[in-house]
Each structure stands twice: as C-alpha cells, then as structure tokens.
TrEMBL record:
Compartments where located: Periplasm
Keywords: Signal
GO biological process: alkanesulfonate transmembrane transport
Cleavable signal peptide: 1-21
PANTHER family tied to this protein: ALIPHATIC SULFONATES-BINDING PROTEIN-RELATED (PTHR30024), TAURINE-BINDING PERIPLASMIC PROTEIN (PTHR30024:SF47)
Protein family according to the UniProt entry: Belongs to the bacterial solute-binding protein SsuA/TauA family.
Domain (Solute-binding protein family 3/N-terminal) ranges: 54-276
Protein name: Solute-binding protein family 3/N-terminal domain-containing protein
GO CC terms of this entry: periplasmic space
Chain positions covered by the region annotation Disordered: 26-48
Amino acid sequence: MRKVKIVMLAVMLHLSTLLMACGTNTTTQETQKETPKVGATQEESPKPVKNPFSINVAISKFTTNAPLFIAMEKGFFKDENLDVTFKFLDSGQAINVAVASGSADVGAGGFSADLYNMISAGEKVVAVADKGREEKTYHYSAIVVREDDSEIKSIKDLKGKKIGLTSIGSANQYNIGMMLEKNGLNSKDVQWVSLNSVSGLLEALKGKNLDVIGLSEPNVSIAIKEGYGKVLAWVSDEISPQSAAIFFSSKFAGNEDASVRFLKAFIKGSRYYYDAVLAKKDGNFVKGSNYEEVIGIISKYSEQPKERITVFPYIDPNGKMNVEDIKEQINWYFKENYIKQMVDPKDFVNTELLEKTLKEMGE
C-alpha cells in the first residue's frame, strides 16, 4: 500500500507540473496577442486629414501653363484635397484683374506695365512662383525680322526701325528695350507700333508693312516655317527676364495651409513638365519617358494639335523667380513713363510661401 501511495503521489505531482506549464504558455501567448508591436501601431496610424478647399484659377490656354494642366490631369491637386476650377481668360491683364478683384484665388499671369500701374493704384496681388522666364540655352521669345531683309544683321541695325508689338508696355517691349540698351541703343532710337494681336504682327511682317516684330513661341516658329521671318536675336541669349508668375489674391495668400498645398501640386507639375521636355544631357535636350503624355496634356488644355507643340518655355522646376529682374522691369517702365509711380517688389512678391513649400517637399 505504501508503494502505491508513493506512485500515486508522484503521478499527481507530474500532472500538476504539466498543468502549470500549460497555463503559463497560454498566458504568454495571450499576452503576445494583446500587445501589438510598435511598428504595426505606426503603420496603422491614419495620416492627418487635409481640409477640403475650393480654388478658382484664372488661366489662359497657353503652353506656359503646362504645370497647371499637368497638376490637374495627374491628380496632384486632388492629392492635396483641393477642388480646383480653371477659369479661362483671353489676356494676362484680364487674369491679373480677376486675381486683384478676388473673383479668382489664383492667376497664371504675366508681368507688364499694366500690372505695375494696377499695383501702384492700390490693387492687391501676390507673386509667389515662377511660371515662365527666359533662361540661357532655352529659346522662347525673340526679335524677328523679314527673311528677305539683308540690311538688319544685328541689334545695332535696329536704329530708326519700326518695331511691332501686341501692346505698348508689354513684356516683349521691355525685353527688346533692354536688348537695345545692352547694344548701345535705347527705346527712343526706334519707333514702337502696337497692333493689338499676334496675328496682326505676323500679317504685318508677311505683308512687308513692318521690318521687325517681337514674338514668342510657337509664333516665332510659324514665321520661320512659312518663310517670311527669321530670328535676329533670342531674348534668352541677351537677358534673363522674369516673364510670368503664379499670382495669389491677398485673401488666398493669407491662408498659408491652402497656399502651400496649392504650391506643392504646382511644383509637382513643374517638375513633371521639366523632366518631360526641358531636361538636358551633355547640353542637348533629352525627351523624358513622359514626353508624349505631357504633349497630350498640353494639347488637351491648350486646344492645339500635338504636332504644333514643339517648343517649350523654361519654367523653373522649383518655382523660383528672378526677383532682381522684377526690380529692373519696374525701373525701366518708370524711366520710359509707362508706369506712373514706382512700386516696391516687397509689396507684392512673396517668397516665403514657396520656401516653406520646398522645405516640406525637398528640392
């Protein structure tokens, strides 16, 4: 009997040990299930929700607006939870007026005497990013002369000539005026003729009613291909003017969150555009893998056939403006009596929003 009791006691102790081990293992497994890993918690954390915001953009159907077309088509605005609507207008002045009046939050406009007069009169617009400027080796605007005119061989030969423009006080007039000064002439050495339209300029040159006109692409190429025009000088070979910009209304510029989100989408579009059509290797243009896609997007929004989209304005991939040239423009227009009073770029140029955008995005 004593041996039986000893055996039974040993069996009971063994069973007790097994049960304790099972209990401990179960508790450990349950504890492991209930305690999530730190990495898993971080991965499952939702991203901060960006408040939806509606934005009206005053814009024209020009190739210079390619980054905006791309941002719309590729969903870059939607990525920032922005509901963007394009309002197509016919002129840069109409775009600037729309922004100043507040009927548009954003405008894709140009710099001109009209803009500076508007600002000096108290209207508020804020230039925040580059949307087109002349850059060395990137040809866009030019002085064009008649193909059959052998007298004009250099800018110095323009003395006494009539120069056709779309309007007095335009960016092209500033460009040509600065090119004249660089070559020892001034605006009083020529006669400026305003014809109010690009088609009027082309017809005047073709009909030999003018010897010289100021043009931008694609119209420079049209005059050359049709055989009645040739380039005397490309603007970017002589000077580096800031031609156009993204403008914010003063109210929209005051909303830093929405402004930075808009600029992020715009910069994404600018970089996508640059990679497609502006990138170079060993000094030569190299078509990006997205070249055909970008041509298609530009064609869709500009309503031009794809085969006509062959020359592309330089747009800084990081949106940086040539602020020094804006100062030069104001000085020149004032000197030439195209603006009534001086304005300070500090009053309408804001670089801080772009700097914040690039800090968050990376350059």
